[in-house]
Protein backbone atom coordinates (compact mmCIF):
# COMPACT_ATOMS: atom_id res chain seq x y z
CA UNK A 1 0.00 0.00 0.00
CA UNK A 2 1.32 3.45 -0.93
CA UNK A 3 0.80 6.13 1.69
CA UNK A 4 1.35 9.81 1.09
CA UNK A 5 4.84 10.79 2.32
CA UNK A 6 3.47 13.72 4.35
CA UNK A 7 1.49 12.62 7.40
CA UNK A 8 -0.10 15.45 9.35
CA UNK A 9 -1.22 14.78 12.93
CA UNK A 10 -3.64 17.19 14.62
CA UNK A 11 -5.89 17.28 17.66
CA UNK A 12 -9.17 18.54 16.23
CA UNK A 13 -11.49 18.45 13.25
CA UNK A 14 -11.03 22.22 13.10
CA UNK A 15 -7.35 21.74 12.21
CA UNK A 16 -8.38 19.22 9.57
CA UNK A 17 -10.89 21.69 8.11
CA UNK A 18 -8.16 24.31 8.03
CA UNK A 19 -5.24 22.33 6.57
CA UNK A 20 -6.57 19.37 4.56
CA UNK A 21 -8.02 21.59 1.80
CA UNK A 22 -4.46 22.77 1.09
CA UNK A 23 -3.67 19.33 -0.34
CA UNK A 24 -2.89 17.13 2.66
CA UNK A 25 -3.65 13.49 1.76
CA UNK A 26 -2.84 11.66 5.00
CA UNK A 27 -4.01 12.98 8.37
CA UNK A 28 -4.36 11.61 11.87
CA UNK A 29 -6.96 12.83 14.34
CA UNK A 30 -5.16 12.51 17.69
CA UNK A 31 -7.40 13.72 20.49
CA UNK A 32 -6.67 13.26 24.17
CA UNK A 33 -9.08 13.90 27.05
CA UNK A 34 -12.48 14.28 25.45
CA UNK A 35 -15.78 12.62 26.27
CA UNK A 36 -17.27 10.09 23.91
CA UNK A 37 -19.93 12.39 22.48
CA UNK A 38 -17.27 14.98 21.69
CA UNK A 39 -15.01 12.38 20.12
CA UNK A 40 -17.85 11.15 17.91
CA UNK A 41 -18.57 14.71 16.76
CA UNK A 42 -14.89 15.29 16.01
CA UNK A 43 -14.44 12.02 14.14
CA UNK A 44 -17.60 12.62 12.10
CA UNK A 45 -16.55 16.16 11.17
CA UNK A 46 -13.00 15.06 10.31
CA UNK A 47 -14.31 12.20 8.18
CA UNK A 48 -16.62 14.51 6.23
CA UNK A 49 -13.77 16.90 5.38
CA UNK A 50 -11.42 14.08 4.45
CA UNK A 51 -14.00 12.48 2.17
CA UNK A 52 -14.55 15.80 0.39
CA UNK A 53 -10.81 16.19 -0.20
CA UNK A 54 -9.89 12.54 -0.84
CA UNK A 55 -7.63 12.54 2.19
CA UNK A 56 -6.95 9.36 4.16
CA UNK A 57 -8.14 9.85 7.75
CA UNK A 58 -6.47 7.83 10.50
CA UNK A 59 -8.08 7.84 13.94
CA UNK A 60 -5.68 7.58 16.86
CA UNK A 61 -6.50 5.36 19.86
CA UNK A 62 -10.30 5.17 19.58
CA UNK A 63 -10.68 2.12 17.37
CA UNK A 64 -14.20 1.24 18.55
CA UNK A 65 -15.50 4.72 17.78
CA UNK A 66 -13.65 4.65 14.48
CA UNK A 67 -15.47 1.45 13.54
CA UNK A 68 -18.83 2.87 14.69
CA UNK A 69 -18.25 6.02 12.62
CA UNK A 70 -17.34 4.05 9.50
CA UNK A 71 -13.67 5.05 9.40
CA UNK A 72 -11.19 2.74 7.73
CA UNK A 73 -7.79 3.33 9.37
CA UNK A 74 -6.67 3.50 13.00
CA UNK A 75 -3.35 4.12 14.70
CA UNK A 76 -2.52 2.30 17.92
CA UNK A 77 0.43 2.48 20.29
CA UNK A 78 1.70 -0.64 22.00
CA UNK A 79 -0.45 -0.12 25.10
CA UNK A 80 -3.48 0.55 22.92
CA UNK A 81 -2.70 -2.60 20.94
CA UNK A 82 -2.46 -4.73 24.09
CA UNK A 83 -6.05 -3.81 24.95
CA UNK A 84 -7.47 -3.74 21.44
CA UNK A 85 -9.43 -6.46 19.67
CA UNK A 86 -7.33 -6.68 16.52
CA UNK A 87 -9.65 -9.31 15.08
CA UNK A 88 -12.59 -6.94 15.43
CA UNK A 89 -10.55 -4.15 13.80
CA UNK A 90 -9.67 -6.41 10.87
CA UNK A 91 -13.19 -7.85 10.70
CA UNK A 92 -14.44 -4.29 10.24
CA UNK A 93 -12.08 -3.94 7.27
CA UNK A 94 -9.94 -1.37 9.03
CA UNK A 95 -6.30 -0.72 8.27
CA UNK A 96 -3.97 -0.51 11.24
CA UNK A 97 -0.83 1.57 11.90
CA UNK A 98 1.32 0.74 14.93
CA UNK A 99 3.89 2.65 17.00
CA UNK A 100 7.28 1.14 17.78
CA UNK A 101 10.17 2.38 19.88
CA UNK A 102 12.42 -0.64 20.39
CA UNK A 103 13.09 -4.12 19.04
CA UNK A 104 10.58 -5.88 21.26
CA UNK A 105 7.86 -3.47 20.18
CA UNK A 106 8.78 -4.01 16.56
CA UNK A 107 8.43 -7.79 17.02
CA UNK A 108 5.01 -7.25 18.58
CA UNK A 109 3.97 -4.87 15.83
CA UNK A 110 5.08 -7.09 12.97
CA UNK A 111 3.19 -10.03 14.47
CA UNK A 112 0.00 -8.00 13.95
CA UNK A 113 0.75 -7.53 10.22
CA UNK A 114 0.23 -3.76 10.33
CA UNK A 115 -0.43 -1.51 7.36
CA UNK A 116 2.41 0.71 8.53
CA UNK A 117 4.97 0.76 11.30
CA UNK A 118 5.89 4.06 12.96
CA UNK A 119 9.30 4.59 14.52
CA UNK A 120 9.88 7.40 16.98
CA UNK A 121 10.92 9.70 18.34
CA UNK A 122 13.50 10.20 15.60
CA UNK A 123 14.44 13.56 17.15
CA UNK A 124 13.45 15.04 20.51
CA UNK A 125 9.80 16.00 20.56
CA UNK A 126 8.13 18.74 22.59
CA UNK A 127 4.63 17.32 22.09
CA UNK A 128 4.71 14.81 24.90
CA UNK A 129 7.07 13.26 27.41
CA UNK A 130 8.68 10.15 25.99
CA UNK A 131 10.55 7.44 27.85
CA UNK A 132 12.69 6.69 24.79
CA UNK A 133 15.75 8.64 23.81
CA UNK A 134 15.73 10.00 20.27
CA UNK A 135 16.24 7.10 17.87
CA UNK A 136 18.49 8.92 15.40
CA UNK A 137 18.56 8.52 11.65
CA UNK A 138 20.53 5.25 11.53
CA UNK A 139 17.74 3.47 13.33
CA UNK A 140 15.40 4.27 10.44
CA UNK A 141 17.57 2.25 8.06
CA UNK A 142 17.64 -0.64 10.52
CA UNK A 143 13.85 -0.53 10.88
CA UNK A 144 13.35 -0.41 7.12
CA UNK A 145 15.38 -3.58 6.73
CA UNK A 146 13.17 -5.25 9.32
CA UNK A 147 9.76 -4.06 8.05
CA UNK A 148 10.48 -4.77 4.39
CA UNK A 149 7.60 -3.73 2.16
CA UNK A 150 5.46 -2.46 5.05
CA UNK A 151 5.45 1.35 4.95
CA UNK A 152 7.70 2.93 7.58
CA UNK A 153 6.59 6.17 9.21
CA UNK A 154 9.21 8.37 10.87
CA UNK A 155 7.88 10.56 13.70
CA UNK A 156 9.18 12.85 16.40
CA UNK A 157 10.81 16.26 16.15
CA UNK A 158 10.55 16.42 12.38
CA UNK A 159 10.59 19.71 10.56
CA UNK A 160 10.98 20.77 6.95
CA UNK A 161 14.78 20.73 7.18
CA UNK A 162 14.82 17.16 8.51
CA UNK A 163 12.56 15.58 5.88
CA UNK A 164 15.23 14.64 3.34
CA UNK A 165 17.29 12.92 6.04
CA UNK A 166 14.52 10.53 7.09
CA UNK A 167 13.66 9.58 3.49
CA UNK A 168 17.35 9.06 2.67
CA UNK A 169 17.45 6.47 5.46
CA UNK A 170 14.47 4.57 4.04
CA UNK A 171 11.40 6.08 5.69
CA UNK A 172 8.35 6.05 3.44
CA UNK A 173 6.38 8.66 5.37
CA UNK A 174 7.27 11.62 7.60
CA UNK A 175 4.77 12.46 10.37
CA UNK A 176 4.56 15.86 12.03
CA UNK A 177 2.66 17.73 14.69
CA UNK A 178 4.24 20.82 16.23
CA UNK A 179 6.37 21.99 13.31
CA UNK A 180 3.00 22.83 11.77
CA UNK A 181 0.55 23.38 14.62
CA UNK A 182 2.88 25.68 16.61
CA UNK A 183 4.14 27.51 13.55
CA UNK A 184 3.25 31.20 13.29
CA UNK A 185 1.71 30.42 9.90
CA UNK A 186 0.45 26.81 9.85
CA UNK A 187 -0.98 27.13 6.33
CA UNK A 188 2.33 28.33 4.90
CA UNK A 189 4.22 25.63 6.79
CA UNK A 190 1.81 22.98 5.47
CA UNK A 191 2.52 24.17 1.93
CA UNK A 192 6.25 23.93 2.65
CA UNK A 193 5.78 20.33 3.81
CA UNK A 194 3.76 19.50 0.71
CA UNK A 195 6.48 20.92 -1.53
CA UNK A 196 9.33 19.35 0.44
CA UNK A 197 7.75 15.87 0.27
CA UNK A 198 6.71 16.12 -3.40
CA UNK A 199 9.63 14.07 -4.71
CA UNK A 200 8.57 11.08 -2.60
CA UNK A 201 4.89 11.32 -3.57
C1 LIG B 1 2.18 7.98 13.30
C2 LIG B 1 2.16 7.87 14.78
N1 LIG B 1 3.20 7.33 15.40
C3 LIG B 1 3.20 7.22 16.74
C4 LIG B 1 2.13 7.66 17.47
C5 LIG B 1 2.11 7.51 18.96
O1 LIG B 1 1.10 6.57 19.38
P1 LIG B 1 1.05 6.18 20.92
O2 LIG B 1 2.35 5.59 21.30
O3 LIG B 1 -0.16 5.36 21.15
O4 LIG B 1 0.87 7.56 21.65
P2 LIG B 1 -0.33 8.59 21.50
O5 LIG B 1 -0.20 9.30 20.20
O6 LIG B 1 -1.63 7.86 21.58
O7 LIG B 1 -0.13 9.53 22.66
C6 LIG B 1 1.07 8.24 16.79
N2 LIG B 1 -0.02 8.71 17.41
N3 LIG B 1 1.10 8.32 15.44
C1 LIG C 1 2.67 11.49 19.05
C2 LIG C 1 4.09 11.06 18.96
N1 LIG C 1 4.47 9.76 19.02
C3 LIG C 1 5.78 9.62 18.96
C4 LIG C 1 6.47 8.33 19.05
O1 LIG C 1 7.70 8.31 19.05
O2 LIG C 1 5.75 7.35 19.13
S1 LIG C 1 6.62 11.07 18.79
C5 LIG C 1 5.16 11.93 18.83
C6 LIG C 1 5.08 13.41 18.76
C7 LIG C 1 5.31 13.97 17.38
O3 LIG C 1 5.14 15.33 17.47
P1 LIG C 1 6.19 16.34 16.85
O4 LIG C 1 6.14 16.20 15.38
O5 LIG C 1 5.66 17.67 17.31
O6 LIG C 1 7.52 16.05 17.45
MG1 LIG D 1 -2.10 5.82 21.53
How would you characterize this protein structure?
The protein is α/β, with parallel strands linked by helices. The protein has helices at residues 13-19, 36-52, 63-68, 78-83, 86-91, 103-111, 137-147, 163-168, 178-181, 186-196; strands at 6-10, 26-29, 56-60, 73-76, 95-100, 116-119, 152-154, 173-176. The protein has one domain (6-197): TIM Barrel. An eight-stranded parallel β-barrel has the order 1-2-3-4-5-6-7-8, surrounded by four helices. α1 runs parallel beside α2 (36-52). The longest helix has 17 residues, at 36-52. The mean pLDDT is 97. The site of the ligand Cc1ncc(COP(=O)(O)OP(=O)(O)O)c(N)n1 has 15 residues, from loops.
Protein structure class: alpha/beta
Radius of gyration based on Cα positions: 16 Å
Name the ligand types.
ligand LCLJCK34, ligand 3NM, magnesium ion
* End-to-end CA span: 13 Å
- Average predicted local confidence, pLDDT: 97
* Residue windows where pLDDT falls under 50 for at least 5 positions: none
CATH class: Alpha Beta
Number of domains: 1
Amino acid sequence: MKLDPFYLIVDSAAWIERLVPLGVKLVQLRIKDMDEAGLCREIRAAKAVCERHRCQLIVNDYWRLAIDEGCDFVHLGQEDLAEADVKAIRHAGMKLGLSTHDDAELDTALAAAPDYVALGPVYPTILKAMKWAPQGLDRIALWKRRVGATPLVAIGGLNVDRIAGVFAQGADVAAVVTDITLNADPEARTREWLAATAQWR
